[in-house]
Amino acid sequence: MQTQLLADGMERLEQRMFRQFSPADQADERLVQKGLFLYRQGTVYEMGFDAGNQMLKAKVRDVHGVSVRISLNPDKGSSCSCPEEPWCRHRMAVFFKFYQQIASVSQWIQTWRNQKQDASVRAQKSPEAWRRLAETTGALMPFEKIQDDTFLMEHYILAGYRKFQEQAPVEKEWTPLYMLYISFYYYNYLAEKFDQESAGITRGLETIMEAMQKAVYDLTVYAHPFSFDPFFKELKADTARLLGRKDPLSFSIYGMMWFQLFTKRRDRELEAERLAEADQSDETQLAQTIFALLRNDDDFEEQFAESSELAVPHAVQWLEWLLREDEIDRSVRVLKAMQKKLDLYLARMENHSDRRSFSLWLIHKIEGEQLRLHVPDVTIKLYEKLLPYSARHLGAVMLDAGKYKEWVELVHWIDFTPEELEAAGLKKLMERKPEFAAPLLHQWVESLIQKKQRETYKKAVRYLKRLKKIYQGLNEEPRFELYLEQLIDRYRRLRAFREECERGKLIHGKD
């Protein structure tokens, strides 16, 4: 019984090895040669087979002795006490040592080299070949090791991308499609294996999404040849898998594909029909909202209102994509619909840091003149909900909208420092409504002088000079002179302050 289990497991492992390593890849060729050398030198010893766990165990004498474990279960990986990753010469030697119990190692080498896989992926350009490459590369992940230390996930994913790049088509026009297709199925394979509750796993999968985003952008720049159609057909059909996974990252990828890549009206109509007939869930309901938005349906707002507040970060992404295409009217619809759920979404966040990070992320996505010049009142309402994190941006929008009194009230409420206020548009206020700026400058001059430091005196003098310019513009310079005279008299004991006023040529030194 145990012998048969070993034979069956080795047959599965043999097939994995054929798919995993290519004789056209110089690194793979060197790895096989090194493993074969160790095997033929008789360095593998203390072999054992754990039938219950389907695990090969052995030790290898090399520069340093190492312990090797190889799982015959395709869902599990392997390990070696050497520092090489993800597959090393020691694991290759152990494979050959066990393999020789059921078949000829020399025959395996000959069969492997006769595959001539150098023409496989690059020449075939077929959905089947590319998907197989993505999934076999994903199968190389040492799942148990990553579960123990999830932040290794990104390292192994990037190692997979190095392999993908080696197999990329020679023709440059095929590269974006190749990277998208490979990344899509690489993501799907790994997302089904790992639980995204871990930050390390999520960050690793986000790395794949970033590669997909770049590929999608590159694909939208140029017209597609007909030879791309089979790949797009597969991708469109398999986006349904993303919704079935019920996690935010997968839904984001779904949205990206249908917003930016699959733009033909008929394709979107067919997907909307499929969603209407599918089993209803939070994901399919929100996906239907995407197509209501893309069609510019009158009931988009009503559909979005039926979703939970967890739809907010997805709506932020929709905004980004719409603004990139200058779809201002639809962007405004999303902005208004999203605002109604924003308070609930922010309330879900347990700490200040998370709320601040989200607020700044949202502000970054919509920052610019497109929205705030088109619908300043809507933008102001959004920034008011994001206070205090949006104070500087809210101030700028208020000034652009001519809401000077509201701007001053905001400044008093937030208690800006002078430096923060300058970033929020003080100079613009001084140019447009200097009478609103003067009281603020009076207030800061007093607070700076009372700190009784040379540097704060210098700042106070800078603001006094601005005040003087404001009063001159209002034809009230005598009023400023009286104010300055009273100020100097009140702080006459502060010699350093008087010296800075003299240096700034606000007053003359004593004769």
From TrEMBL:
Organism this protein belongs to: Jeotgalibacillus haloalkalitolerans
InterPro entries on file: Znf_SWIM
Residues of the SWIM-type domain: 66-99
Domain of life: Bacteria
Metal-binding is among the record's keywords: yes
Protein name (Swiss-Prot/TrEMBL): SWIM zinc finger family protein
Annotated keywords: Metal-binding, Zinc, Zinc-finger
